[in-house]
Write a structure and sequence with these properties.
about 200 residues, about 15% strand, disordered N terminus
Length: about 200
C-alpha cells in the first residue's frame, strides 16, 4: 500500500512525537544531561524495518525520513536493521537494548513477535510498534484508521463502476489489511447497494 504525501508528513510527525515522548518521560536521573546547558543530550534510536526495506515508498521510507528529520531537529542518532530472519532481528534489538537506546521502533506487523519478545526482556527500554498493536507496558502501538480513508475509496469505486462490480486485492491477511478491506466494502455498500463487491 503506497503512502500519499499527506500520510507521509503525518508519519514524520508521529515519529518526532515518539522521540520527544521518550525524552520527556525519562527519569530525571537517567537523562544523561550534561552540566553545560549548551550541550544537547544525544538520543539513540534503533529502527527495525519491515519487509520491503528502504526504497519501498511506504512505511519503511516514511519511518526513515521521519528519523532524518528528527536527526536535524532533536539531536537524534539512529541505526536501522534490515528485515531478515527472526534470530538476526532479535540479536539486533537486544544489542540496541543492552546499549540503553532511548527508543526502539519496529515497522510493520511482521515484526510484532520480535518487538514483544525483546520488550519483555528489557522492561526499562521504550519501544514503538508502527502499524500494529503490540502487548507490553513499555511498547507504544501506533495504528491508523485506515478504514476511514478506504471507505471513501469504496464510495468512489461504486460511483465510477460501469459494471456494478468492484474488487480489491488486500494482500497479506493481517489486521490492518482487514480494516482496509472492511472500510472499502462499507463504502461501496453505502454508495450503492446494487454494486457487487469481491475481495482477494
Amino acid at each position: 500500500m503506497k503512502c500519499n504525501h499527506h500520510a507521509m508528513r503525518r508519519f514524520f510527525t508521529l515519529i518526532l512525537i515518539l522521540i520527544m515522548t521518550a525524552v520527556f518521560l525519562l527519569p530525571a536521573g537517567c537523562t544523561g544531561t550534561h552540566s553545560d546547558s549548551n550541550q544537547q543530550t544525544v538520543l539513540n534510536v534503533g529502527l527495525l524495518l519491515g519487509s520491503g526495506g528502504l526504497g519501498d515508498k511506504s512505511f519503511n521510507d516514511s519511518a526513515y525520513n521521519g528519523l532524518l528529520q528528527a536527526q536535524k531537529l532533536y539531536n537524534v542518532r539512529f541505526e536501522t536493521v534490515d528485515f531478515t530472519e527472526a534470530a538476526a532481528k532479535l540479536d539486533a534489538l537486544r544489542l540496541f537494548a543492552r546499549n540503553n537506546y532511548d527508543l526502539i521502533i519496529g515497522v510493520a506487523y511482521e515484526n510484532k513477535t520480535v518487538i514483544e519478545t525483546v520488550a519483555a526482556e528489557y522492561p526499562g527500554i521504550r519501544f514503538a510498534a508502527i502499524d500494529f498493536e503490540a502487548n507490553g507496558p513499555n511498547i507504544a502501538s501506533i495504528v491508523y484508521r485506515e478504514q476511514e480513508a478506504d471507505f471513501l475509496v469504496g464510495v468512489l469505486a461504486a460511483m465510477l463502476t460501469k459494471t456494478k462490480i468492484v474488487g480489491v486485492i488486500g494482500g497479506t491477511d493481517i489486521p490492518a489489511i482487514r480494516r482496509i478491506m472492511s472500510g472499502f466494502q462499507q463504502g461501496v455498500a453505502y454508495q450503492d447497494t446494487n454494486v457487487r463487491f469481491f475481495a482477494r
